[in-house]
Amino acid sequence: AVEARAELAEVEAGADPLAAAEHEAADAGERVEALSAELSAAREAAAEPFSDAVAAELQGLGMGDGEFQVQLTGREPGPVGSDGVSFLVRPNAGLPFAPAAETASGGELSRIALALRAVAHASAGEPTVVFDEIDAGIGGRTANAVGTALQRLAGSAQILTITQLPQIASPADAPFVVEKVPGDPTHTAIARLDEEARRAELE
After folding, report:
1. Best CA proximity match to 107, nearest among 152, 34, 149, 163
2. Within a 10 A sphere around the Cβ of 58, how many other Cβ atoms?
3. How far apart are CA 54 and CA 119, in angstroms?
4. What ranges make up the beta strands (E) of 79-125?
5. pTM exceeding 0.90
6. Model pLDDT for residues 40-78, shown as the tens digit of each residue
7. Which ranges constitute the DSSP H helices of 121-187?
8. CB-based burial, 64-82: b 16+ in 10 Å, e otherwise
9. What distance in Å separates the CA atoms of residue 56 and residue 58, rounded to the nearest whole number?
């Protein structure tokens, strides 16, 4: 009621609420454009070094030559600026770069996510990161590299990893085993392993 009376008083005094709203909208539009341009410049400056750092991580995670690019495209300004951001990968030499979300397998997507997190240091706002099938199609040295990367990332976030590989499971601080238990109904059981059971499971 107080706001309505104040608005009516302004109208009676000759104020034009439509003109005022148009002026405020124009000011807001200019502010959006300025902030979007600032954000676009920051993204443009960060894209290449970020791509190089992620590519270096991917090379150690069994992703071929680890070729990775950040592609920026213009779009209408919105809550996250005026850029469309795509992550492009080229897992095999001679193939064109393509969006990771469209071409990478589940295991490759997990490793790309791991590389992104490793570079970004699991920044604030995501205290827990879950990786499933991160061991798909890898073994040996690559599996060791993935385990090491997960362990490093665990210094700044809680990492939950579902894996079949001892190279990835062995660095874990808290190992669990998940088993299907037959019965009526069949159910799933999960239990934390003590040191003896951990050694047996890894073997």
Report:
1. 163
2. 24
3. 6
4. 81-90, 98-99
5. no
6. 999 999 999 999 989 988 887 877 777 899 999 999 888
7. 140-153, 166-169
8. eebbbbbeeeeeebeeebb
9. 6
